[in-house]
UniProtKB/TrEMBL annotation:
Location(s) in or outside the cell: Cytoplasm
The protein's name in its UniProt record: Dephospho-CoA kinase
GO function terms (MF aspect): ATP binding; dephospho-CoA kinase activity
GO terms under cellular component: cytoplasm
Lineage: Bacteria, Pseudomonadati, Pseudomonadota, Gammaproteobacteria, Woeseiales
Regions that span the bilayer: none
InterPro entries: Depp_CoAkinase, P-loop_NTPase
Binding site for ATP: A19, S20, G21, K22, S23, L24
Species whose genome carries this gene: Woeseia oceani
Length: 207
C-alpha cells in the first residue's frame, strides 16, 4: 500500500476472485454515498467499437474476436486468453496501463471522504501501491465455481481455468486489511459493509 498523502483521495481497493460478489459489495457502498470506481466498467469502455484499444486487440488476435456489430466478441477473446497464458499476458500488457491511467483520472475528480476502487486482479497488479487499504471479498472456491457456472454459463473446464488464472484465495487474503466473507446472507454482507463504512470514514478523517 502507498504512503498516505493528504492531497490525494483515501482509496480502498476492493478485490476478490471472479464471481465472489464484488459488484454486490460495491453497490452497497455506493448506496451509502461512497464514490465507486469499477475497473471492469473502465475496461469495457476502453474497448468500445472504434476505440484505439479495440483496434489493437483486433491486430493482436484477428477478426475472430470482433462481433458482427463491430464490438468485441468477449466470449471468443476469453476462450483464447484463458487457454494460453502468453496470449493473456499480451492482452493485459495492452489494457492494464490504460485501465490504471483512467482509474487514477476518475479518482482524482470523484471526491468523497473515501473511495472504493474495484480491481478484480489487485493482488497481481501494481495498482495495489495506489491503495490505502485493501478489502477482499472472500468465498470458498466451490461456491465461486458454482456461481461462475450459473452466472456466465461457462463449461466447468473453462470456468476452472479462469479461476486458476487469477491469484489464489490464499494470496488475496494475504494482502487484505479487511475481509468480507460473502458466503452468507445478503443482510450479513450489508451489515459488514456498514461496519466498514464507519471504519473507513474514521480512518480517512485521521489522515
Amino acid at each position: 500500500m502507498r504512503k498516505l498523502e493528504n492531497t490525494e483521495p483515501f482509496r480502498i481497493g476492493l478485490t476478490g476472485g471472479i464471481a465472489s460478489g464484488k459488484s454486490l459489495i460495491a453497490n452497497y457502498f455506493e448506496e451509502l454515498g461512497v464514490p465507486v470506481i469499477d475497473t471492469d466498467v473502465i475496461a469495457r469502455e476502453l474497448v468500445e467499437p472504434g476505440s484505439p484499444a479495440l483496434n489493437e486487440i483486433r491486430q493482436m488476435f484477428g477478426d475472430r474476436v470482433i462481433a458482427v456489430d463491430g464490438g468485441l466478441n468477449r466470449a471468443a477473446l476469453r476462450t483464447i486468453v484463458f487457454a494460453d497464458e502468453g496470449e493473456r499476458r499480451k492482452l493485459e500488457g495492452l489494457l492494464h496501463p490504460l485501465i490504471r491511467e483512467e482509474t487514477m483520472r476518475q479518482s482524482a475528480s470523484a471526491g468523497g471522504r473515501y473511495q472504493i476502487i474495484v480491481v478484480p486482479l489487485l493482488a497481481e497488479s501494481p495498482m495495489r501501491e495506489s491503495m490505502d487499504r485493501i478489502l477482499v471479498v472472500d468465498v470458498p472456491k466451490a461456491l465461486q465455481l458454482e456461481r461462475l457456472l450459473a452466472r456466465d454459463a461457462e463449461n466447468k473446464a473453462q470456468a476452472e481455468r479462469i479461476i486458476a488464472s487469477q491469484a489464489s484465495r490464499e494470496e488475496r487474503l494475504a494482502i487484505a486489511d479487511d475481509v468480507i466473507n460473502n458466503d452468507g446472507s445478503l443482510e450479513l454482507a450489508r451489515q459488514r459493509v456498514a461496519e466498514l463504512h464507519r471504519r473507513y470514514e474514521r480512518l480517512a478523517a485521521l489522515r
